Amino acid sequence: MFIKIGFDIELAIASPMALIHLLHVHPSRRGDLLAPQCVEVLPGLAVEEYFDAFGNLCSRVNAPAGVTQVGFRSEAIVRDSGLPDEVNWGAWQHDPTVLPSSTLMYLLPSRYCEVDSELLQFAWNQFGTTPLGWARVQAICDFVHNHIRFDYMAARATRTAVEGWREGTGVCRDYTHLAVTLCRCMNIPARYCTGYLGDIGIPPVRYPMDFSAWFEVFLGDRWYTFDARHNTPRIGRVVMARGRDAGDVPITMAFGQNTLQKFNVTTYEVDAYGNAIFTV
Fold first, then answer.
1. CATH class of 101-247
2. CA-to-CA distance for 190 and 164, rounded, in angstroms?
3. What distance in Å separates the CA atoms of residue 213 and residue 156, rounded to the nearest whole number?
4. Cβ proximity of 5 and 276 under 8 Å
5. Residue 277 pLDDT exceeds 70
6. Are residues 76 and 112 in contact, defined by beta-carbon separation less than 8 angstroms?
């Protein structure tokens, strides 16, 4: 299958400043693009691309004096398997003593995932008797899915996992931060993902299209996708960036006073010629 992805984002800025964005498709999906992705920056400012410590493709834009608005636009078509997220109930959980060293950072506390908090004891009380591995991660997803009430109007960029747990409301990043934290509390490496997830194979939802957040855990010998908000295998994820939490993978980061003026995201199934396909 083919998926059309894109965005149209505009920021008003108050002074000359640097801006960073992680709006490219993740390098692991670059080979699935039908044509190289171009992120247009308006006005036509110079762009410096680099890879961060997590392997994400990032861009820095320096807005000079006189520029009061900066826009980012892109459209692309991605080839996808059309298969739902993989489910593997036999995927095993390793003791930290034998985990690959590259996964250990995803057991530690991070900005939005306070492993060293009251969530640690809560996690062991809640999940300590569940079977190791896939079943334990699924139990965590079940809990988070039922504990947090999705409310688009309650989104808050500073909400942490502990706050999401206490408040019981939020958006996809809040589900993800809480699930990631609970997994880490149970010694399961978990990392935050952001990207596209359209209404493919499901009835359209009433909320505006946005970028989505989900997470991956290391079980057996690889990373697997989980999604505590939807809590069911989904079709058509296109990852943009991975990190310890949302602080590592900002869609845009402006180093100065700014205001979001426009934010439109598109992701839907198309044929090889870019014509929309609407099926459920």
1. alpha beta
2. 17
3. 14
4. no
5. yes
6. no
> Which CATH number is correct for 2-82+250-270, 3.30.390.60, 2.60.40.2250, 3.40.50.10090, 1.20.120.1460?
2.60.40.2250
Distances 180 to 10, 120, 161, 229 between C-alpha atoms, Å: 30, 12, 9, 12
CB 222 within 8 A of CB 229: no
Q: Where in the chain is the domain with CATH 3.10.620.30?
A: 101-247
70-79 pLDDT, tens digit each = 999 999 999 9
Give the span between the Cα atoms of 174 and 157, in whole angstroms: 9
Residues of the chain with CATH 2.60.40.2250: 2-82+250-270
Residue-wise pLDDT for 221-266, tens only, equals 999 999 999 999 999 999 999 999 999 999 999 999 999 999 999 9
Q: What is the pTM of this model?
A: 0.95
Q: Which two tokens stand for residue 88?
A: 């593997």
The whole-angstrom separation of Cα 55 and Cα 103 is 14
Q: Could you tell me where the DSSP H helices lie in the chain?
A: 118-127, 134-147, 161-167, 172-185
- pLDDT-derived band at 203 (thresholds 50, 70, 90) equals confident
Tokens coding 1: 């299958």
Is the model more confident about 127 or about 280?
A: 127
CA gap 219, 23 in Å, rounded: 28
Residue 221's DSSP bridge partners are none
> Is the CB of residue 200 less than 8 Å from the CB of residue 3?
yes
